[in-house]
Amino acid sequence: xxxxxxxxxxxxxxxxxxxxxxxxxxxxxxxxxxxxxxxxxxxxxxxxxxxxxxxxxxxxxxxxxxxxxxxxxxxxxxxxxxxxxxxxxxxxxxxxxxxxxxxxxxxxxxxxxxxxxxxxxxxxxxxxxxxxxxxxxxxxxxxxxxxxxxxxxxxxxxxxxxxxxxxxxxxxxxxxxxxxxxxxxxxxxxxxxxxxxxxxxxxxxxxxxxxxxxxxxxxxxxxxxxxxxxxxxxxxxxxxxxxxxxxxxxxxxxxxxxxxxxxxxxxxxxxxxxxxxxxxxxxxxxxxxxxxxxxxxxxxxxxxxxxxxxxxxxxxxxxxxxxxxxxxxxxxxxxxxxxxxxxxxxxxxxxxxxxxxxx
Length: 359
Ligand code: ADP
Prior knowledge:
alpha+beta; Rossmann fold; CATH 2.40.50.140; 2 domains; 6-stranded mixed beta sheet; 5-stranded antiparallel beta sheet; binds adenosine-5'-diphosphate
């Protein structure tokens, strides 16, 4: 058996072409969808509950088949008609699905045993995996004796023990508490980098997706709305759903007069609207892009109604515009509730909003 770090050679691209899914009750869970995942890449499927993430993951796993015309390929192989046990996938679910009566070592080695890997090799491989997921000393414990984080590490080791061609993670950290989630998130990111197995990772948690994945595919209502590097999508979402889903935004409507004048108006202040956004009925701006300072002729004049200390930063609720706005400022900001402040926006920070209900 090859050493653990040989797995990079075996990484395969995954391609999904025109895969739609209609469940027997008529639910159209996925509209025709295409997606390419590069060899060794970690791609997060991110989106609100019910948008079709799990359905897409299950189509790739072989737990569901796509509507006619859809195709799933692992490398050169068309796996569309193959059942899960012949696809060579490893899966980790939100609820660990470990065998409760088996020890950690037996759980991790289960897939190797049913593949009749000789015992000496099996032991060696389980030993490597125990080390990889830092469970040394716990080999003989049963799942009930472990913490949630430890159980999820066992599930991960079990999934990768068989050297899967593709690793599929379905909300793997959702059941953990916040602190543990953050810790395991870092571990998982690091482990996936080392393993270099092509991975799809379903999550509704944007921090988790940003921390773990190389690229994000953001889904809404059975469709992928955008695919890309997390930072690029955050900075330049292009689509209002992406801007609103990834991070937080304020929406400023532009009435007919503002549109006719080519302006963005806020609390009586008129700023020129960037040419690319002239046709937009509203513009978006992130809380951290509202620059809160002294009032002045170039600033919108707003009052602070609420100040929320969030540790590394402070959130301010601002009144005086069409609707309350949220700004985020440095934690050392001297601004207090009741203050009147001047808000300025770097024109490059405005983002487009358009009504895409028809799409
Ligand atoms: P997500 O993982 O993003 O929460 P899912 O893929 O689980 O979304 O679900 C997408 C849609 O398909 C939802 O409306 C869900 O209710 C529906 N759905 C999921 N599984 C089934 C099923 N087996 N039968 C019918 N509808 C389903």
